[in-house]
Specification:
Elements lengths: L8 E3 L9 H17 L6 E4 L10 H16 L5 E5 L1 H5 L1 H7 L11 E3 L3 H15 L24 H17 L3
Parallel strand pairs: 1-4, 2-3, 2-4
């Protein structure tokens, strides 16, 4: 998601409708690697309707478990979760909700808890902030392969071809 002042990575907005905690952890780690590949310092926000310990429920617990898995699998990766989008993106909100966090208010990788949330959020940000949505960028495959929607414009096609070419430069035969 290319905004006027920064580029963010959103995952998963296109493939897995209701990921498990393990799948969310995989999405987070893969998305962080994609961010790094494109020169974006990965700081991962595991999104939820709750920030920190403020809420509970099955959806929050799924994100909490996924965050623990990310910390276990990628101990050097800055990750926060569960965290609401506003606390992940806005420094003032972050200062009030999670003042000690390395990620809150500075997230660059946003991992959505499900496809519904991710797809709707990326479209809302794209339309309301005038952001350029590039992708989806498919991850975890042996070769770079990406997708375009039926309504793709020429700019969408060019952006996706460019991303795929950059991915191919780092691919091993």
């Amino acid at each position: 998601m290319a905004l006027a002042d920064r580029v963010l990575v959103y995952g998963d907005c296109a493939v897995i409708p209701d990921p498990t905690s393990a799948q969310l952890a995989d999405i987070a780690i893969s998305s962080a690697a994609t961010a790094a590949r494109f020169g974006i310092e990965p700081r991962v926000a595991m999104l939820s309707y709750s920030t920190g310990e403020s809420g509970s429920g099955a959806d929050v617990e799924k994100v909490r478990a996924a965050t623990a898995l990310v910390r276990e699998r990628a101990p050097g990766l800055p990750v926060e979760g569960p965290i609401q989008y506003d606390a992940a993106a806005d420094a003032a909100v972050a200062a009030a909700k999670l003042p000690e966090s390395q990620v809150a208010g500075r997230a660059t990788v946003f991992v959505f808890p499900d496809l519904n949330t991710g797809n709707n959020t990326y479209k809302a940000v794209q339309r309301s902030a005038g952001a350029v949505a590039i992708g989806p960028v498919l991850q975890g495959l042996n070769k770079p392969i990406n997708d375009l929607s039926r309504g793709a414009l020429v700019d969408d096609i060019v952006n996706t071809v460019t991303i795929t070419a950059i991915q191919a430069q780092g691919a091993t035969p």
